[in-house]
Each structure stands twice: as C-alpha cells, then as structure tokens.
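can u pls check wat happens w/ S-adenosylmethionine
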Amino acid sequence: MSIIDQLTELERQSQQRGIPIVGSAKGAWLLQKVQELKPKKILELGTANGYSGIILGSAGASITTIEIDENIAEEAMRNFTECKINAEIILGDGVSIVQELAQKNKHCFDLIFIDFAKRQYLPVLENCIQLVRQGGLIIADNISFDGCQDYKDAVLSHPHLKTDIIDIKDGLSCSEKK
Ligand SMILES: C[S@@+](CC[C@H](N)C(=O)[O-])C[C@H]1O[C@@H](n2cnc3c(N)ncnc32)[C@H](O)[C@@H]1O
C-alpha cells in the first residue's frame, strides 16, 4: 500500500477539522518527486499535522520542519513517530528560523518545501536558495494564490533557478537551483 493510501484517514480527519494540508493529489506528485530525487535532507516550512512531512520523509530522508503553532506541532510529532519518519520539528517563525539557518552556513538541503504563511514566501526565497544544494529543489505550495504572486514572479525570472509551475489544484512551483 502506498504512503498516500496509508494517509487516507489523516487526510479525511484534516479536511474535517479544517487543517489545510496538501492532500492526496499534490501528495502523489510530491511522492513521485522524492522517489526520483532521493533527497537525504529536506527542509519544510509549515508542518501542520505532518501530512506532507510524512510523504516527503517516506523515502528515507531526514526532515527538518518548522511550525509556529505548538499544539499542531505536537500532533505532527506523534504522526511522524507512528509513521517512523526521521523528523525534527523546529518551533517558531519560519522567516527568522530560515534566516538563522542560512547565517550558520552549514546546512545544505536537497529539497525545501515551502507551505506556510503565503505572504512570507518571497521573504524566505533568497535564504532558501542559499540553503539548497545545486541541482536541489525548492517546491512551493498554493502558487496561484494572490498572496504568492510576487514569489511566483520572482522564481520564474530568477537567474539561479529553473522553475516549472505544476497545475494541480491551486498549483505548486518547482524550482531547480542551477
Ligand atoms: C498549509 S499549513 C501546512 C500544511 C502541511 N505542509 C501539509 O501539507 O501537511 C501551514 C502551516 O504553517 C504554519 N505557519 C503559519 N505561519 C507560520 C510561520 N510564520 N512560521 C512557521 N509556521 C507557520 C501554520 O500554523 C500551519 O500549520
């Protein structure tokens, strides 16, 4: 049974409780990406209850994921443990934590998944480019939201990125660092 099928009940509960997870259609696309790229280290901005983190970590990567809400982060940790995902949750504001990680200059991620406060996508972009390895991916969710337009324009025209827009539901962007 694929991890997407195993997460059907968590998806159903999340929808019922209004937790805005990526869901199974985008989840299947993310799963295919991690199976192709075989990332070892993943950074996620916006953990929620761990639904996307479980998919991203399901091919064996270690995942560092940032969440501002302590209660939902506790749920995520329980879900990661249950699914045997190698995950560390950093509690706090994604913008400042990503800046701190970039300043330390010792982290190199194979894949970064951005799925938190929509208007904060652009402010984290340059730090994410610094944190991802060459050939690695920066994937952002909900890219057709109004609040993400400045980020979308920036990744499509950025000299260090090659970006595709993935037309599933409200869209994802997938930027490879040149
Ligand atoms: C769309 S949900 C994440 C869904 C998750 N990626 C999934 O698909 O399973 C966005 C999450 O980002 C968190 N968040 C919002 N603003 C944040 C911030 N400034 N820093 C860190 N997390 C934030 C919210 O609490 C929420 O849980």
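Residues 20-22, 46, 48, 51-52, 66-69, 72, 93-95, 115-117, 120 surround S-adenosylmethionine (CB under 6 Å).
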